[in-house]
Write a structure and sequence with these properties.
It is a single chain. The protein has 297 residues and is mainly beta. It has a single domain, classed as Glycosyl hydrolase domain, family 43 (Tachylectin-2, Chain A), CATH 2.115.10. Helix content is 0%, strand content 56%. It has no helices and 20 strands. A 4-stranded antiparallel β-sheet has the order 1-20-19-18, with no helix packed on it. The protein has a 4-stranded antiparallel β-sheet with strand order 2-3-4-5, with no helix packed on it. The two termini are 15 Å apart.
Length: 297
């Protein structure tokens, strides 16, 4: 369906980029699309725009200020707070986000934060000053990009886990894939190092941003994988833990020219009135904006 939103560049919290789209239904055909913009200092903050899904290229409104802003100096999210997933819970919204800051020996470090919204998602307050998921023995480098589903009281998370850094051409290069965690309350998580989506060749070094939906007895995951440039991948599972990659079925690739001709990534898939939609980024990790695709049945 094409490009639906490009960063206007005229808001203080969003000088560039519209990365990591997340949809949240407001009412009827109206959706709030959260995304991460960057200010003039390169810090990431999360705001939103709103659309009618039947006319998605017409922007109804854009937030004047961010819902999630970067933390204070020295905290885990002092360089950015990037929303990754929203869970409705007891008239509140749990906003799971990527907090990051600049590192020394490597360029950056990520962790997972949680913020709570009590006004329908227009504003949010951090659950804690620190992350709810950070480095440990299972994930010694960094974690990011949580996707969370709640099933029969069990909170299930699929997340990005960095497995190491290597120096290539004089610069640190990260390697990460998708792992799994569980929780009883959505705050305290148990990790056992279970890998869900792993590298399929030596050319791959980054598998990120899982988005999981359950169709009957089948779990479906969309994710981004990178060798030379990002593409969107797809996998299936019967239990949400053991997955089979079926990237050839994703049905979407780069365009011949334009905003998504070099890469496509950071897919977020959702259903509306019997139709399945995908929000995604194109060139420059969100620098060119956000596009929308609809599943061709």
């Amino acid at each position: 369906m094409g490009l639906i939103f490009a960063p206007p560049g005229n808001l203080a919290w969003m000088s560039s980029h519209a990365s990591l789209p997340v949809s949240d239904r407001v009412a009827g055909n109206e959706y709030r699309i959260y995304f991460s913009g960057r200010d003039e200092y390169g810090r990431s903050q999360t705001g939103f725009f709103e659309i009618d899904i039947t006319a998605p290229s017409h922007i109804l409104s854009t937030s004047e200020s961010p819902v999630l802003t970067h933390g204070s100096l020295g905290t885990f999210d002092d360089s950015g707070a990037m929303l990754s997933w929203v869970v409705e819970r007891d008239d509140q919204k749990y906003l799971y986000y990527i907090g990051w800051n600049v590192a020394g020996t490597v360029p950056f470090r990520n962790a997972v934060g949680l913020a709570i919204s009590r006004d329908g998602g227009r504003t949010a307050v951090p659950y804690s000053k620190g992350p709810i998921l950070d480095r440990n023995d299972c994930d010694p480098y960094f974690v990011a990009s949580p996707c969370v589903l709640v099933e029969n009281g069990l909170w299930r998370m699929w997340y990005l886990s960095c497995v190491g850094w290597e120096v290539e051409k004089g610069k640190p290069k990260h390697y990460y894939h998708i792992k799994y965690a569980e929780s009883a309350d959505g705050v305290h998580w148990q990790r056992n190092g279970v890998v869900c989506i792993d590298f399929k060749s030596n050319d791959e070094y980054a598998i990120s941003r899982p988005c999981v939906l359950k169709d009957g007895s089948i779990y479906r995951m969309w994710y981004s994988y990178r060798g030379q440039g990002y593409r969107i991948g797809y996998g299936e599972s019967k239990d949400g833990i053991s997955w089979e990659r079926k990237d050839e079925l994703v049905g979407l690739d780069v365009s011949e020219s334009g905003w998504d001709s070099e890469m496509i990534e950071y897919a977020f898939v959702f259903d509306h009135n019997g139709e399945r939609y995908m929000l995604y980024n194109g060139n420059g990790y969100g620098r060119t904006g956000i596009g929308l695709a609809r599943l061709d049945k």
